[in-house]
Design brief:
three-stranded antiparallel sheet, 2 helices, mainly beta, elongated, 10% helix
Length: 87
């Protein structure tokens, strides 16, 4: 197994050999040890604080189709004085 160190990004992913892997949310921002089999992209493990987690290869197509709740919509007609031309 190969070993390397990576930092988990704010979206709970890490990049390894030009592939994106999903990790548990509690690892966000942490530097972790990653162990993997170079011939098998499905076999990737993340080690942090004595615990082992399996990283899952991100399916970008599936992820792009996931419905997410939108934040509160902003009504720009009321921002900055009700649509007046403010300079």
């Amino acid at each position: 197994m190969n070993r390397t160190t990576r930092r988990i990004s704010r979206d709970a992913t890490l990049e390894l050999d030009c592939r994106c892997y999903e990790t548990p949310m509690q690892l966000i921002g942490q530097k972790v040890e990653v162990r993997y089999l170079p011939d098998d992209p499905e076999k990737v493990w993340v080690f942090s604080e004595g615990k082992r987690y399996q990283a899952r290869l991100t399916n970008r197509i599936e992820n792009g189709k996931t419905k997410r709740e939108n934040q509160v919509a902003i009504d720009y007609s009321t921002v900055l004085g009700g649509g007046e031309n403010v300079h």
